[in-house]
Amino acid sequence: MTRVRSAVTGVGAYLPEKVVTNADLAKFVDTSDEWIIERTGIRQRHQAASDQPTSDLAVEAARKALADAGKTPADVDLIIVATTTPDMTFPATASIVQRKLGVPVGVAFDIQAVCSGFVYALTVADGFVARGTSKCALVIGAEEMTRLMDWEDRTTCVLFGDGAGAVVLEPVEGQGTPADRGILGTALRCDGTKTDLLYVDGGPATTGEVGHLRMLGNQVFRHAVVNIAEAITAAARDAGIEVADVDWFVPHQANQRIIKGVGDRLGLDENKVVSTVALHANTSAASIPLALDFAIRDGRIKRGDLVLLEAMGGGLTWGACALRL
């Protein structure tokens, strides 16, 4: 029996030109290269220019993804942007991306699930594409997390960077088995009782200001390792596969210790885990597509590979997605 699935047909990524190394941060933050690397694995991050909004990063990544898929903006009928740092309170950054790309009238909206945003957006887009509502969807994770930093808080400001990644989703027919190309299984979660562990202390309906990112790092780490492992197992079960069957794991690039902790809990082969956190730090919703693009470009991830994506962010939100490229 045939089944329509949503396949990733193009991938693209963009990082702002400015690179901020750990040594650069140490010039005005009470920290050091050694301290940051030991605790996070991060060596550098990228920072958007003052006149470079999130939509600009999203557009650059989207253009590369469309080119990779052999598509043009005229083909796109759905845009979903996962972001914590929109250009404006409204309209949605997706609307601005639609205008800048020259995409015709269609569906465009944002998703806010912080670091889990890309997995959430991919799952939502799958609902459109697999049901036949969309023939060519752009799913983008784009963030300028440096805008939210308190540069006097060394426990958070060293962790984050700016960037964007995008994928093109198109419908493909399969046989309804795990051998199919496309999204095979997903698992999304949220526990709103944990909002105080990771949040921004501002907003239009509270302080009227953007605010700064606040985090209880040790507790976030503990929840991340347990929750992400559960979501990975659930997504694999939904896909009808075993975790051991996966060719590549592409985790949210938050912290090398979290990536390793999840891998150890599930008994993952570290050679199957894609880690790019050292190169761009935590870019929230952008980190998974950035890492996916990086591993495809360097030849590790190939067409037909079984890939598992996972993330956890403020909310607390978390989730995983199993797909075959």
The sequence of SSEs as H and E is EEHHEHEHEHEHEEEEHEHHHEE
Radius of gyration: 18 Å
Strand content: 25-35%
How many helices in DSSP terms?
10
Give the helix proportion (percent range).
25-40%
Strand order of the largest sheet: 1-7-6-4-5
Low-confidence stretches: none
The number of E-state strands comes to 13
- Between the first and last Cα atoms, what is the distance in angstroms? 21 Å
Helix/strand class: alpha/beta
Looking at the structure, what is the overall shape? globular
Q: Give the averaged pLDDT, no decimals.
A: 97
Q: What kind of sheet is the major sheet? A: 5 strands, mixed
Task: Tell me briefly what this model is.
This protein is an alpha/beta fold and 325 residues long.
Write structural notes for this entry.
- With 325 residues, the chain is of the alpha/beta class.
- The protein is built from ten helices and 13 strands.
- The chain has a five-stranded mixed sheet with strand order 1-7-6-4-5, sandwiched between helices. A four-stranded mixed sheet has the order 8-13-12-11, with helices on both faces. A two-stranded antiparallel sheet has the order 2-3.
